[in-house]
Fold this sequence. Notes:
alpha/beta
Amino acid sequence: MSNRITQLFNIKYPIIQAGMIWNSGWRLASAASNAGILGLIGAGSMYPEVLREHIQKCKQATNKPFGVNVPMLYPNIQEIMDIIVEEGVSIVFTSAGNPKTWTSWLQNSGVTVVHVVSSVKFALKAQEAGVDAVVAEGFEAGGHNGRDETTTLTLIPMVKEQINIPLIAAGGIATGQAMLAAMVLGAHGVQVGSRFVASKESSAHNNFKQVVVEAKEGDTQLTLKELAPVRLIKNKFYNDIQELYKTAPTPEQLKELLGRARAKRGMFEGDLEEGELEIGQISGLIHDIKPVARIVKDMLKEFQEAKQNILNIEDYYF
């Protein structure tokens, strides 16, 4: 399954395990890379020296390529980037910031740079900044999201029409069928987040993993658009946000309610009432917690079966 993405990252299959905060430590990233896809460590939830430890442990656990996802809105960004280069990480996915800030600096150190975007406008800015590829993430995705609420089904072909660098689709992708659909729309590969949250190797708390597999359609919602749009599972904290919205709150009041470390409290520590539980809409289609290798194997099997079904489409649909 060789294409522009597998060649860019030197991986076997064009699938990227998303670098999600509080979920994507070295165990998940190394398991993903060992399964033939690209594993990413999520630096957003790590102090610099913790990130260094995860990188070192990941190098010990796999001899395959892996990368680090860096949300650029976090503090200590210079120290984080220095550690990435010092440790010889060859792939970085940046998000939540201007790609011009770090792309050339990283590339001058031999790092392949990918930027995550939620719109055509930002995809073009990333291409102009010289990134090696972009991830176009639709409204369905978990965690922090685009303000325009553009779905993956419409975002991918619109981005594909405007850029000429490799394109990775994200948002609502947890099956081989969705992977095939994204590639038919023009993506060269897919980034998968929520499905890997519900994996054995994810660093998420088991309470959170169980909520994910129990989630149904409509159990997530995009909120806090005045601060940074984020898709959450509906729980007490989410309901508190909705009650506050009835008072037409200021951004400062929303920040006060949000407080600090809500995501850690929910996803890493397992507080299902007061924690921030970030997950995508596709959680309604995730029903079990499996090893990463099995998730990848199942996706690839579904992908091939879906391709065959398309070839035999007259037998199936007419």
